[in-house]
Write a structure and sequence with these properties.
Chain lengths: ~250, ~250
């Protein structure tokens, strides 16, 4: 929004069926395709950003199949791997993600295609801790330390020399300060959201031209949630860093 | 199963849409009614045990409306409150539960009807900790201590003198040893599952007569899950304390 304020943004949060990260590929693909069809067929989206690592890792092809081929579909795995490639000197990277994302090995595959070796670790407690609002809590710091110690020890046992950590879940940037405090000295941390925004702005500029010199400061925004709109307004505002609302209730039939 | 081995049991786990405890009444009621209709209309159930505190607290009436009036529907809130009534000398009880159950105040209402004062506390991290398998982990002990300290302090501030704690979520009995170690000395802990089993056996004996003297030792069991059957077999076995399977995949349309 900061970099392409001329675009219109429509956000769907499938809150009635979250979290995706503990579910199977089949179920995640069905849910993600329903949201994608809503955004394209009913909201007229020209670009789809799959702003969820789990859905990007397990359902990108299903989402592309579910919508018109004229729609550009952008996941978060490939830009995250590209940012890791730019960051890493040793060629070895660590990935923290949900259970489903790790089991798909989407990051390992995307990193391998760029000549990187990636070691992935499922961190299922981090999403609930962020949802609970414990983003600066000592329990969260302790859980991060436990997960990272296991991940770093496993990397050492495999003879890897990682210098980069990819945050493979959209919830993790909210606890980035705690993660920064826990990683070994000198390790760089990649938040794929930045890379995704780069790529989306490139698409927009190619298709629509550069943003107008006097771009609107307040882009047009619309929010949908499949469960309680009040809860989404509360949590969404914490994620976005500005008030979210009004939120509209969306029935995807599930 | 131990006490009514002559009955046939069919279990539905709506794993594609779990957890219910963080969702709205409207969504929980819709999901629970779909499972109830499946059990009654397609599996021929005569009794429904709503073995989930959140669904019992928020959707018991919706479930009763969704199925034939000849079906006995048994939630876990009322038996839990009855057990608290039998346990408490002071008349003041504490309840740990999910966010949705606490917001419904179902336990406070059921306890008040029995002359008890109940103070409820949402403990949203406990379900993810159990699902992660950290049932004897020091992080789980620390989270329990934080929740209980807040609950006990709030009770003291309100002038309550609680002597009984109700475990208001089906996941919590798996961490009962950690909770026992954290409660003030002398506090009794209520697991409503025991009370529910009492009540169900009473129904069954009234309707079907006493169990046969040579009851089958292995009751007839059938399991359905709406997401990964492999994951359900793994986690379900941990909950039941014996192998669960085979599990059948169920599509409730969501």
């Amino acid at each position: 929004m900061a970099r392409a304020p001329q675009a219109h943004y429509v956000f769907v949060g499938d809150t009635a069926r979250l979290p995706y990260g503990s579910k199977s590929r089949r179920t995640i693909a069905r849910y993600a395709a329903q949201s994608a069809r809503f955004l394209v067929e009913e909201q007229g989206a020209d670009y789809l950003v799959i702003a969820c690592n789990t859905a990007s890792a397990l359902a990108l092809d299903d989402i592309k199949e579910a919508v018109s081929s004229s729609v550009s579909v952008l996941g978060v795995i490939e830009p995250g791997a590209a940012a890791a490639r730019r960051s890493s000197r040793t060629g070895d990277v660590l990935v923290m993600a949900t259970d489903a994302t790790v089991q798909s090995h989407a990051y390992a595959t995307a990193c391998a295609a760029k000549g990187l070796r990636a070691l992935e670790k499922a961190c299922p407690l981090l999403v609930p801790l962020v949802e609970e609002g414990w983003t600066a809590h000592q329990v969260t710091a302790e859980v991060i330390r436990i997960y990272l110690d296991e991940l770093v020890a496993e990397a050492a046992a495999k003879g890897l020399n990682p210098d980069t950590l990819v945050l493979g879940c959209t919830h993790y940037p909210l606890i980035k300060p705690l993660i920064e405090a826990a990683v070994p000295a000198g390790m760089k941390i990649i938040d794929s959201a930045e890379s995704v925004a780069d790529k989306l702005v490139m698409y927009l500029c190619n298709d629509l031209g550069a943003p107008p010199a006097t771009a609107p400061t307040d882009p047009q925004l619309r929010f949908f949630a499949t469960d309680s709109v009040e809860k989404f307004e509360r949590l969404g505002s914490r994620f976005l860093g500005r008030p979210v609302g009004p939120v509209e209730l969306l029935d995807l039939g599930g």
